[in-house]
Amino acid sequence: MKVIDLNCDLGEGFGAYKIGNDQEVLNYISSANIACGFHAGDHNVMFETVNLAKKSGVRIGAHPGFPDLAGFGRREMILSPREIYNLVTYQIGALAAICKVNGTSLVHVKPHGALYNMAASNREMAAAIAEAVADFDSTIVLFGLANSELVRAGKEKGLLVAEEVFADRSYQPDGSLTSRKEKNAIIHDADIAIKRVVRMIKEGKVETVDGTDIDIKADTICVHGDEPKALEFVSKLKHAFEQENILIRKSW
């Protein structure tokens, strides 16, 4: 039997704005990446989402992003390594405090959006993020795009690293995710996405946009909680995993 962690970005509402079906999605996943107030979320949503995850028995992770609420953290920002270190530390600390007062703990850190994608190829950014996590708590797991600079930086810092793959994103031949600016960035057909994920888990391969296969390591799979059909997709994914004898739980 294959074992895989299934993670989802949650807690992305703020103020009067509700985004996603967090409570329902938590029934299907094993790890929750909770927005920390910079790209999405706020103090009230963070408290609520931490408690929902705790009640559901889902592991909690910080999901730090660029300070870009209007752009949902998906726009690139040019910051120094020290600025990256500081903003990641700030956000991890905020969520860790909320976890502590609610009798639970922070298990992992997964950068969000542009911060995540830039750190996948930018060595200095990756090192700054890994250093922030290691300095805060070296037992925290760092999530990074499979075979990326962030993964390598985390390992060099002595962190336990979970290599992440994406259920609903297309891949470039170099292993990077296709930019969201491209029409083929998102895979909207759930059946195709599920077949690709099963292959990544069982064969360690994924077909890229040019039709070639590349090797890929899947410790954890991301599904996006802000997508309109997120709940329907995770339900189908769980059913498919049951058929393929794949168990959803911590895989590292």
Features:
252 residues; 39% helix; 10 strands; TIM Barrel; 7-stranded parallel barrel; 19% strand; globular; alpha/beta
Task: Indicate the topology.
Layout: E1 2-10, H1 22-25, E2 31-35, H2 43-56, E3 59-63, H3 81-101, E4 106-109, H4 113-121, H5 123-136, E5 141-145, H6 149-156, E6 161-166, H7 190-203, E7 205-207, E8 213-215, E9 220-223, H8 230-243, E10 246-248
Parallel strand pairs: 1-2, 1-9, 1-10, 2-3, 3-4, 4-5, 5-6, 6-9
Antiparallel strand pairs: 7-8
Structural class: alpha/beta
Q: Order of strands across the biggest sheet?
A: 1-2-3-4-5-6-9
> How many individual helices?
8
- Overall shape: globular
